[in-house]
Amino acid sequence: xxxxxxxxxxxxxxxxxxxxxxxxxxxxxxxxxxxxxxxxxxxxxxxxxxxxxxxxxxxxxxxxxxxxxxxxxxxxxxxxxxxxxxxxxxxxxxxxxxxxxxxxxxxxxxxxxxxxxxxxxxxxxxxxxxxxxxxxxxxxxxxxxxxxxxxxxxxxxxxxxxxxxxxxxxxxxxxxxxxxxxxxxxxxxxxxxxxxxxxxxxxxxxxxxxxxxxxxxxxxxxxxxxxxxxxxxxxxxxxxxxxxxxxxxxxxxxxxxxxxxxxxxxxxxxxxxxxxxxxxxxxxxxxxxxxxxxxxxxxxxxxxxxxxxxxxxxxxxxxxxxxxxxxxxxxxxxxxxxxxxxxxxxxxxxxxxxxxxxxxxxxxxxxxxxxxxxxxxxxxxxxxxxxxxxxxxxxxxxxxxxxxxxxxxxxxx
Length: 413
Description:
This protein is 36% helix and 14% strand. By secondary structure, the chain is of the alpha/beta class. Strand 9, helix 10 and strand 10 (306-307) form a beta-alpha-beta unit.
């Protein structure tokens, strides 16, 4: 059994586009006809350029290889061009291809991926979601209104969720870390207060940021929201400041979480060694794939750190997260787009189930999902923007900043 063919799907989810502007899926086929599906969570270049990177990584390091040899193929890609250091674009391409390899191997052996990773530790995975508006009620105001966020939190807790994430702390910009404005701090505190009052002790508050702040600003904001006891404080400073995460963690009483933009065990280990985070959030379509994430989880065990795999992508990365989560002892929870996401679930023909605040682990061979290729082809992405984009304008200190979640309410692509 050898890897033979590659097909790439660049899929645009319908508005409002929870999960990003587009998703990049890869399909691998072996010389004996077994197929596997993976997902790349890397968009530092446009979709056409990213497709070229994926093709190059496959042709150069994987074509003709046995799909079991993920360690060998990882070392080839990681070392390509005399690098041997984290590269989010190359490793993002490899990650999706690697996930597809696990899908193939599981199908060939007639076993789910989690069974190949050490077996079942967790049959039901605690699930959390962003606080999204109800379908048809999307608006820019939702993202800056504490009362609307509190109503959403109560609605999701009523569905069975025991944790919800929100990020009212202002813009993320290309300029790096900044001091939060006074209004961003007061709005963040108001969100925490309103949501805590709405859900009481029935759910954890997950405070999200996107690496907006410098160290002093991150500490100042954390102190303002501490009274409402968030479970975590997500990516408070830019991910290129790995050593400075420890300065934030030492100064606050909330667990720092990070990892969406990190890749390979090298970056995660640096955060752990310095005491920079207690919760790791690898995105398996960028971190190096399922096997690399398993290594990250093992390293985290030594530091009594927990994993909460990140998801702001499509359903194949979600499936990979679930198989990893099923196999590790230090899983905290997994991110879910609402209870699975309407279009997400359509793309995998409803082959993953969510029930009473938990994701049920698939038991079919490979990833245990049924990818709808026709539906994927029917929703191509034709836009010019990237999956997510940072704004160029600096933080506004004279009037309130506005932030519209992961996709603009004026979604037109």
